[in-house]
Amino acid sequence: MKPTLIPLTALLLALARVATAMGQTPLHVGFVDPALPKDPLPRNAAALAFAQTQGEVVRLAWQTTGGWLAADGRIRAPEEFDAVWFHQGDDVAAAKLDAAAGADLMAWLEGGGSLLLSGAAGRVLNDLSIETTSLRVLGPTEVAHVSGIRVVPKHREHSAFAGLDTTRLVPLTIKGGNALADFYDTAGPHGELLANGSGAGERPLVEYIVGDGRVIFVGWRLPDFTTATDAHRPNLERLFGNLLHYLAARNTNRARLVAPPGKSRYERRMGIPFLLADKPVELLAAARGEKTAVSVEADVKETAIVG
To answer: Which residues, listed in sequence order, are joined to residue 75 by a DSSP beta bridge?
Structure first.
């Protein structure tokens, strides 16, 4: 008989950690988009369209009541994705995350998650105190910026640059006009600088270790996906495809969020995301081989597992 977990008097949520193959193709990407439920703005829509070429993509927007709302109305957790990508190419103000959203991402990162930040979303590095140097943040422009990277020699074999000629300038776009964050006219990043920009001092490609997790930031005018006919578009797609797969391969904080019947609310306990039911419910236990975390209220008198 399929095992069941029967909470007798509890608010309850079960979450099962899933062993997932690293570096899998296609990827399962959570794409942070504060515009949800509306359509994304044009520059963000272009990045989303690229992400969808890499696998299954779920748009996510933080809810003031807690949790990441997907377009299908479900509440999701970052643990459910191979990598989470926050790109902001249109609106500098929209690059600022709600404090609770930032705290949720930090808990996930410190537990081993993988986050890609690009465009003006790089300001999240400051907002979450991952980076102490204040980044420059600018809005989009219609002025064309020819933009590329010069890979730091010691990082030429980094997986991010597979298939690219790292011995010379790697051009990424002839029309980089997206909203940006970068380290121009600053003391520079405290993370690991992977590549300089083709300009002077932007230092736009940086990797950070956050607890057991990892963040990669791609800034300046580099991540402009509106240039579909750009001769350098293959380089841009290669770089970002590499980054998503690299991050996915290093994500050690994966889980399957289980929703109880009826109303529930999203909450982290001991770093683990739960959907807490508003009354006692019966839930199916995890499949054999899955580890399970269960949160039970303090006044619970009894629980039973039947298998």
So the answer is: 69
286 and 188, same domain (yes or no): no
Residues 50 and 169 grouped into a single domain = yes
Name the pairing type of β-strands 83-88 and 27-32. parallel
Per the listing, tokens 């309850």 go with 12
The CA distance from 98 to 106, in Å, is 12
Q: Distance between CA atoms of 207 and 224, rounded to whole angstroms?
A: 20
Residues with Cβ < 8 Å from 52, sequence gap 6 or more?
Answer: none
Residue 183 shares a structural domain with residue 98: yes
Quote the DSSP letter at residue 154: G
230 and 277 share one domain: no
User: Residues 53-110: pLDDT tens digits?
Assistant: 999 999 999 999 999 999 999 999 999 999 999 999 999 999 999 999 999 999 999 9
How many folded domains does the chain comprise? 2
Cα–Cα distances (Å) from 145 to 92, 150, 172, 232, in that order, read: 18, 16, 10, 13
Q: For 147, how many CA atoms within 13 A lie in the half-sphere containing its CB?
A: 28
Cα gap 112→224, rounded to integer Å:
28
CB-neighbour burial class of residue 171 (10 A; exposed 0-12, middle 13-18, buried 19+): middle
Q: Which of 64, 70, 66, 13 is nearest to 261 (CA)?
A: 13
Please check whether residues 161 and 284 belong to one and the same domain: no
- Tokens at 211, concatenated: 């607890």
What's the pTM value of the predicted model, to 2 decimals?
0.87
Range of the domain at 301: 4-14+255-306
Same domain, 37 and 64: yes
